[in-house]
Specification:
elongated, mainly beta, 10-stranded antiparallel β-sheet, 2 helices, about 240 residues
Amino acid sequence: MKSVNFIFVLLLVSVNLFGQNDLKKKRSKDFKLYSNFDFLSKYLDCEIDTISGISRNEYVKEINGFNFSPSLVFYTKKGNSSEIEISRLDYSNKFNKEYTLLDSTGSLLNVISENTQKQFELYLRYEYKLRLFKNKDWEKIKPVIGFSGTPFIIWDKIDTLLNTEFKKTKTIVGLYLSVIPRIEYSISERWYFDLNIPIALATTHYTYLRNEDPELSLEERSKKNSDFYNTPVSLAIRLGIGFKI
């Protein structure tokens, strides 16, 4: 991810250097780079026992910071705009091993657990933004309100290396809807800051779980769940720097 962010920074600098001879032209597109601080509360999956009627829900709170996300902004003739953003793109491949050692010699006694875990996350955001107080002649500050939809996919797979454990896969596909108040502050004719607070109001998602344990029946190995909820509300604080192309 660091290399991807570095490439976007180089692109931003290159556009600035090669576009100095066209400063007076009216801009219809912007490039932005955000720094994100997320405070997320979410439900990951739900398991229901059809015999007892008892359900199990997983609720998670997360705080993420300093991750960067690029976007492109396209303006309309009325001064409003649409924005397309790669909010999060992450992949990891981990090796996990749990074992016991004999203290006196340090020799390996037995391996309790050994697996590889692969994870992939992709969040995209589309936002339509309305510029407020257009009749005000404010040179530096522009208040904006945005409405966005963020489709996402989360994939997690555990491949075990022991015969006593079994492969597990989890896939989550969903969408959350947000309202985003913004303040844009002009630094120069081309550069500006963008401070905004996305407020996620509603989320819908589909979860698919797969467990290859042979002791489970074919029906029990796969579990599916769809859900929609408008709580809890998730917040983020984002500071972006924009460049008029």
